[in-house]
């Protein structure tokens, strides 16, 4: 066996060991152990993509193998699954999860299973912010598990696992049609962040991306109804695809865009219909507003704006939560306008997938840089566009973002004022390291391309 082949397979074995250790034998509070493991996984991953180590079949086999390691057991790096179980159990019982907060429901009495998870909910006073298609998955898992927490978690993992593997096949289909090597899908398929946060920690970004890319694929084939349905389903899982809708305009023109937008919102309305009422709309918007105004985690520009506001005004200005999203919207509209003015031929042919991916990554990157909260799994939404429109900065970010798990470390519990990571200076050192390296790589690559 050639030394190169020996190394890549040794790294596969090492990765399997570390995935098992990270998920089944350590807690997220053990930060040094955790970050050492993710560093080893990240370096193995970087080696594979740098060497283009695996063919398409090997990528599929390894993707299935790594994810299968997480199918059993409970998530140890996230507690969001308690809310998934809560919402799913309510819908099975015929209760609208958007009508009452867990706190309100608790005041009216709970059964024994709900009593079991209530203390672990991280947002007891908030209405659910998970869109209707997501609620369908929660309900299905709770129904199949007959209201059992561990069973519900297993079925949710199984749903995410199946959609994630299907998405990898879809990515390969994109690559083949673009005359690119299908094995480039390993950028997504073998990424530690994707593997740990999706199947492992039960986040639905992979499901959302499967529907979104299915919609783009149908749009590529000029099948607007199917594209509308698929993109509507993606919005029904996570609302983030709404940010990308303006970018379709320069590629397919005004008439097709209007039809597409109408179709998307029709299907979103259709999926939401079983839950809709004026009270539910008010509750959902209230929770979203509180989320964007209240939560702060792993931010960058938001933290800078907040600190500047405190220095000059003596307090955090509430206008920060308005101006930064407004700036994001302006950037997305500017990107759309640039494509419309500079690329008129785009409207005369099929959608340019590579260019669309590039500008979508830019739009999402700006959005997350301006956001007050950037959970690690959010970066997956940017990483996926690097499969077709490669960016070393976004690939690096997918590993560096694990530094944000410092907030759960024993160090924060022992030394942060009131155990509040946002008041702890060391937390901001890790934030700086993460974003400084990503920005450096981005600027360096941009300058090389320019030259």
Topology:
Layout (H helix, E strand, L loop, with lengths): L2 H22 L6 H21 L4 H13 L12 H12 L9 H6 L4 H6 L14 H13 L4 H29 L8 H4 L2 H9 L4 H16 L3 H14 L7 H28 L5 H17 L6 H13 L6 H23 L10 H18 L9 H4 L8 H9 L9 H6 L9 H26 L1
Describe this structure in words.
This protein has 451 residues and is mostly helical. Helices cover 69% and strands 0% of the residues. The protein has 21 helices and no strands. Helix 11 runs antiparallel to helix 12 and helix 16 packs antiparallel against helix 17. The longest helix is centred in the middle third of the chain and has 29 residues. It is globular and about 65 Å long. The mean pLDDT is 90.
Would you tell me the overall average pLDDT?
A: 90
| Strand fraction | under 5%
The end-to-end distance, rounded to whole angstroms, is 40 Å
Low-confidence stretches: none
Structural class of the secondary structure composition?
mainly alpha
Write down how many β-strands occur, each being a DSSP E stretch of 2 or more residues: 0
Inertia-based shape:
globular
- Helix/strand order, N-terminal first: HHHHHHHHHHHHHHHHHHHHH
Largest sheet: none
Helix content: 55-70%
